[in-house]
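TL;DR need structure tokens for one chain.
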Amino acid sequence: MPKNIFIEDIMVRDVACATLPGSRDEVLKILKNKHISGVPVLKDSKVVGIVTRTNLLQNPEEEQLALLMTREPITISPGSDLQTASRLLLQHGIRRLPVVDNGKLVGLVTVADVVGAIADMNIDTPIKDYVEKEVVAIYNETPLPVVARIMELASVKAVPVLDASLELVGIISDRDIISASIIEDSVEMSDMSSGQDDDAWTWESMRDTMSIYYSVSRIKVPNLIGNDIMIKEPITATYIASISDCARKMKRNRIDQIPIINSNRKLQGLLRDHDLLKPLIES
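>> reply
TL;DR here they are.
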């Protein structure tokens, strides 16, 4: 297995970024337009955070970028090797590493970039030992807000979709949910009393109240069903497929996971892009 692949060889150099102060709407626009799942956050040209689709979905009412982002992100240098990047991505359960040289952002390396390198390595080890067999799957007529909540509770970024006969008919990722989501503005009211609870002269029925109206902006998952937005006829594989074969499928189709099925199209497990990194750090 090659040992001389360095981060500067595979990193993305033209990096989409968000800057402080910034807003959720600006980030959402970048993610949708660039078809990416997260961006570094800069302040005075230094990396101070990472903001992802997960941050947006878990905090639908938060608008300030500084409160949405994950602070003090793990970074890597351009001279580090592929194994070091794989170890960091797996150890911290993250999808991207800002590449920093002398305190300056010079690139970004993602799980997809590492998978792209694996695709060229011709690793013929079967995927069977790396497939996740405990998989959260949903019924194709499940309401989309319920799908989003299931994914949040299960801490997964994609779910296979099954029909009534338990056959695999699609897959839904957080990318699909974000693409379908909208920003919803509303006005809410809060009643505030001018009396105090410990004021003996203030009766509940006579207490003066003051109504405060304020605007709320939140990300809303539309009232669709899984079948409406799922990727139909997803790319699949079987247990005997090799590591590099699956990496090539992910790279070619720009996907992060592959459902594993048997000859009857029954779901057996899910191979995530993170799983393909494991052979690199085992060698």
